[in-house]
Write a structure and sequence with these properties.
Blueprint lengths: L14 E5 L2 E5 L2 E5 L2 E5 L10 E3 L4 E9 L3 E8 L3 E8 L10 E2 L4 E4 L11 E7 L8 E3 L2 H5 L40 E4 L8 E4 L2 E4 L5 E7 L2 E6 L2 E7 L3 E3 L1
Antiparallel strand pairs: 1-4, 2-3, 4-11, 5-10, 6-7, 6-9, 7-8, 8-11, 11-12, 13-16, 13-19, 14-15, 16-17, 17-18
Length: about 240
């Protein structure tokens, strides 16, 4: 279905919706579709690649490469709205903490992950935080300008909360005096150039999660994990307290 969006999500501004939000049948099974699927309405005539673009100003909250969603990006916007754009052709050049402006190119439309053809999966989570809390909502009212992110009737506007941003040595100035204690929630911020792997004295581990639980504190040595399951012991300077 050819759509007329006030807030575009592809570079050609020529969105064609192939699957709406809500219950649908996919590969013979009924499921809840937590976003909308979009292609370029001129896809049969166009030879060039089409880009997904940011729906509003925001901060990159997560960069994905998963079995189901393929390459994708989550962006946190004003008003505690999180937008999700998935199935890119290649990994996005953006990194967690990068600031984006409305209309900035995010990734090339592709078919990575659980996908049957080149398209963009676009989702919205309301009442969200930097750690993907919140609930899925129909993106259509936001794309048509009937619901807003930030302030201003019919417009998506405003900035987004500042995400932890690494300095030259991979640490954040806000973590130096953080009073971290057992039970706190923290985020690992000392990552490599690909935003995935962290090295500590005594071993390596992959940063699979955006949020970790503090299990034990011994000076600057912090034991983190998921619940009571230990993931690693890291230096306090490599963590940002939520």
């Amino acid at each position: 279905m050819k759509m007329s969006y006030k807030n575009n999500i592809i570079s050609t501004k020529n969105e064609f919706r192939t699957s709406p939000f809500g219950r649908r049948v996919f590969q013979g099974q009924t499921e809840q579709h937590d976003g909308v699927d979009i292609v370029d309405a001129g896809r049969l005539e166009r030879a060039q690649e089409v880009w997904s673009v940011a729906v509003a100003d925001g901060v990159v909250n997560d960069v994905h490469n998963g079995v189901l969603i393929g390459h994708g990006v989550d962006i946190l916007h004003a008003g505690n709205i999180l937008s999700r754009q998935y199935h890119f052709k290649t990994r996005s050049v953006l990194k967690v903490g990068d600031k984006v402006k409305k209309g900035d190119c995010i990734g090339i439309l592709g078919t990575t992950g659980r996908s049957t053809g080149i398209h963009l999966h676009f989702g919205i989570k309301e009442n969200s935080t930097r750690w993907n809390n919140g609930s899925f909502a129909d993106p259509e009212p936001y794309l048509r300008g009937e619901k807003i992110i930030g302030g201003g009737s019919g417009e998506i506007s405003g900035g987004a909360p500042e995400a932890p941003r690494p300095t030259g040595n991979g640490t954040s100035a806000s973590t130096a005096t953080a009073n971290i204690k057992p039970g706190d929630k923290v985020r690992v911020i000392n990552v490599d150039k690909n935003g995935r792997s962290v090295t500590y004295t005594g071993g390596n581990f992959k940063v699979w999660h955006s949020l970790y639980d503090v299990i034990q504190v011994s000076g600057d040595r912090i034991v983190i994990g998921i619940g009571k399951n230990v993931t690693a012991a890291v230096n306090k300077k490599d963590l940002a307290k939520v």
